[in-house]
Amino acid sequence: MKSGLFFLLIFFVSISNAQITDKEEDLKTISADTLDGWKFHGLTALNISQVGLTNWAAGGQSSLALNGIVSLTADLKRGKSTWNNSIDLGYGILRQGNKVLVTSGKFIKTDDKIDLFSKYGKKATERWYYAGLVNFNTQSTPGFSYPNDSVQISKFMAPAYLLGALGMDYKRGDVFTMFLAPLTMKMTFVNDDSLAYRGAFGVEAAQFDDLGNVLSQGDKFRVEYGGYVRIMFKKTFMENVTLTSKLSMFSNYINNPQNIDVNWENLLELKVNKFISATVTTHLIYDDDIQITDSDAKIGPRTQFKEVIGVGFSYKF
What gap in Å lies between CA 166 and CA 230, rounded to an integer? Predict the structure, then answer.
């Protein structure tokens, strides 16, 4: 993505961070610096939506939708060292259509996410840490080019991304962190013959001679080296309203470094009581290596965006 969006996102997070009062930040910093040991946090939520229509003159279709999320963190502080770990899982399905389709139990996937994260840091100054991180993400089930469910466009480990980075981590209590890594390796896995054959997700496609014979199969693995930035902002604005924002950006030093890969996730939690809540999640992705076919049948990189709004059962600890 062009550098303009890069600076726009940095500006947004900086503005949000600036709203923290000095007194509040001092209290959070004192608490974070004096308490050693493990801290565990988690959120689980299941949202259900159902519409049933019988002889409905206004038209429409019956539907059933389920969406679940699990977000767990485990943080360790011991002396000058910190270790932050998180697991984010999401899955959603939709069944929509007439009686024949509903009876057949045909479900369409609406969400699918596996994201594992681990970061270790050692204190250098009051707010800066020497740090390294590992991040892995993929999906759990196949994805299709709907409404054509015979064309598979993704699956477990196709794609999967493993990123390792070394750099410096800036922290302001538990509210704001910014990790800057000039040394980063990003690995892309496409563990599927047909997808690798087409060169999906930036891997090298199969090579052919002038007669159309295959000279080499498509690669299933790609490595990129570059710079990486990860920003996280988490704040409870009211007693039961919490916003978590995660922004990651990567630039490939060798191939088109001006095209920034962007991954921006937001989770807004609105707690009604111990077991009922509303969640709003958004996810924006731009990756110059992911080719998408638009409504005009043009193929190229596109900005991907997903939002999920749900009200249902949840438990937070």
Answer: 12
Residue 211: its pLDDT value, please?
76
Cβ within 8 Å of residue 208, ≥6 positions away: 214, 215
Q: Which residues of 93-102 are buried (b: 16+ CB within 10 A; e: fewer)?
A: bbbeeeeeeb
Sequence-separated (6 or more) residues with CB below 8 Å from residue 169: 119, 121, 128, 129, 130, 131, 177, 178, 179, 180
Closest by CA to 29, choosing from 118, 123, 120, 131, is 123
Domains of the chain: which residue ranges?
3-35+73-86+113-316
DSSP per residue, 2-22: -HHHHHHHHHHHHHHHHTS-H
Cα separation, 193 vs 274, in Å, equals 47
Mean pLDDT, each 10-residue run in order, the chain (317 residues): 46 46 50 75 90 84 90 94 96 74 64 97 96 97 83 93 98 93 97 91 87 82 97 91 96 94 95 90 93 75 92 87
Task: Give the side-chain half-sphere CA count within 13 A for 285.
Answer: 12
In the three-class reduction of DSSP (H, G, I as helix; E, B as strand; rest coil), residue 195 is classed as: helix
Other CB atoms within 10 Å distance of the CB of residue 43: 21
CATH number of 3-35+73-86+113-316: 2.40.160
